[in-house]
Specification:
This protein is mostly helical and 295 residues long. The protein has four domains: 2-123, no CATH class; 127-186, no CATH class; 187-221, no CATH class; 226-289, no CATH class. It has ten helices and two strands. Strands 1-2 form a two-stranded antiparallel sheet. Strand 1 and strand 2 form a beta hairpin. Helix 7 (226-233) packs across helix 10. The N and C termini lie far apart (102 Å). Residues 8-44, 68-78, 85-98 have a biased composition (Basic and acidic residues). Residues 1-44, 59-98 are annotated as: Disordered.
Length: 295
Amino acid sequence: MSLSSQRSRTDAARSCESVEARQIRLESDRERHADSRASETYTQREARLCLQRSRASFSRSIEDDEERETRLRRDRSQHALSRSLETDEQREERRAAARQRYHELLGDASTHLSQERDRIQEIRGTWSDEQRAAQVEQDRLRRNVNQLSTSDEESTVYDIEEQPWLNKEGSGFMYNVAINYAAYGNIGALEEVCAHCQARKWKGEPNGMCCASGKVDNRWIVPYSPVLSRTFQTHIANPVTLWEKYRHRLSEDFLRALRRANEDEVEVTDGRVLNTCLSSLQDVVISIGGNPLER
């Protein structure tokens, strides 16, 4: 309340002063400030600037929107009036001081960047090979994210984890960390058949990938090696012993699949796992040798 009343009294007093009185007051203030700042040390100057920043920050943090607009409007009016009354010499002095402050800031920024580079180099000099490799990988991922495509079809309106894979042409040469390629892993079934070699193909697979449109003679290709075929075409000496010895290794994939599907701990001796594995083995054996497992 006291600050507000003081501002009101100051505004009322300054609104009544003439142009000459205002110029005299401003000139007196400038001389007093110049004398005071010329005699202060570097430490005193930094302390004064820090105190001014703290005071201004606190004052602006408690003002409401109306007070802020009033302050900005008053500042604009004061600046416009001050610059309209200044002479050409004063304008040049003000601009020269502004240019000097600008170059000082550039010098400070350059010094700061140089110090930061030295500090970072010193820190990285103490890294181990593992830390350096992890940082390189992190930098690579950050660059990839910053270079994401911003085309009409594949824009940044998507989250990084949800960006779709729309432009597939040439994707093998432009890996994008923001695309979950695993979600597009289903390429369909082998439903097409080549008219020349009867090889099964995926839908959309170019012609000639299997036999160059009949130019390659693939009649010498056999589904399995002759030794493997003869092994399953003849009778296995002791299939039960063979199954009992390797059943857990053979059924590992089926066990993991069942655990993922049920989200619980399925035992390795679970009948569902072993029966599924046996059924799959029988399909393979029949496709190779033509005889089921029970034979």
